[in-house]
Write a structure and sequence with these properties.
This protein has about 130 residues and is mainly α. It folds into 2 domains: about 70 residues; about 50 residues. Helix content is about 65%, strand content about 10%. The chain has 4 helices and 4 strands, in the order ββαβαβαα. Strand 3, helix 2 and strand 4 form a beta-alpha-beta unit. Helix 1 crosses helix 2. This is MULE transposase domain.
Length: about 130
C-alpha cells in the first residue's frame, strides 16, 4: 500500500494498493500525482528507503524530512509496557501485604486461644506438677 497525505489538510493525495513498494513503484505513482498538480514544498517520510529513493528520483529539489510517528509509537509501547509492569508490581505488593496481615491476624488469634486455654486449666497443670508425677 502506498499512501501520501498532506499533513496540514489531511488530504490523501495517494492511496494505492500495489504488489511492490520499491523505488520504481514509488517514483511512478509520485509522477502520476505530480502530473495531477502535486507540488509539495517538502515531504515527510518514515525510514523506508524505497519511499525516500522514489521521492529523491522524482522530487529532486524537494526536501524530505523524517517523521516522528514510528519512534513515538515505539516509545508509547515501551511506556505502556512499563506502566502495566508498575501496576502489576503494585497489585502484587498489595496482595503480599494482605497475606502478611492475614498471617499476622491468624498468629494473634492462635496466641490468644493458647493463652485462653492456659488460663482455663492452671489448676490441672499445677495438680500434675504438685502430685509428684513426672
Amino acid at each position: 500500500m502506498l499512501v501520501g497525505v498532506d499533513a496540514a489538510s489531511t488530504y490523501c493525495y495517494l492511496l494505492q494498493g500495489v504488489d511492490h513498494r520499491d523505488e520504481d513503484t514509488w517514483g511512478c505513482h509520485l509522477l502520476d500525482v505530480i502530473a495531477q498538480g502535486l507540488e509539495p514544498d517538502y515531504t515527510i517520510a518514515d525510514g523506508g528507503s524505497s519511499l525516500r529513493a522514489g521521492q529523491k528520483a522524482v522530487l529532486q529539489e524537494t526536501p524530505c524530512h523524517g517523521d516522528v510517528f514510528h519512534i513515538q509509537q515505539q516509545f508509547e509501547q515501551v511506556s505502556n509496557g512499563l506502566s502495566h509492569r508498575g501496576q502489576g508490581s503494585e497489585t502484587r505488593l498489595m496482595k503480599q501485604a494482605q497475606q502478611i496481615s492475614k498471617t499476622s491476624l491468624k498468629d494473634i488469634v492462635a496466641q490468644k486461644l493458647l493463652g485462653q486455654q492456659a488460663s482455663r486449666t492452671p489448676r490441672a497443670s499445677a495438680a500434675l506438677v504438685g502430685s509428684g508425677c513426672q
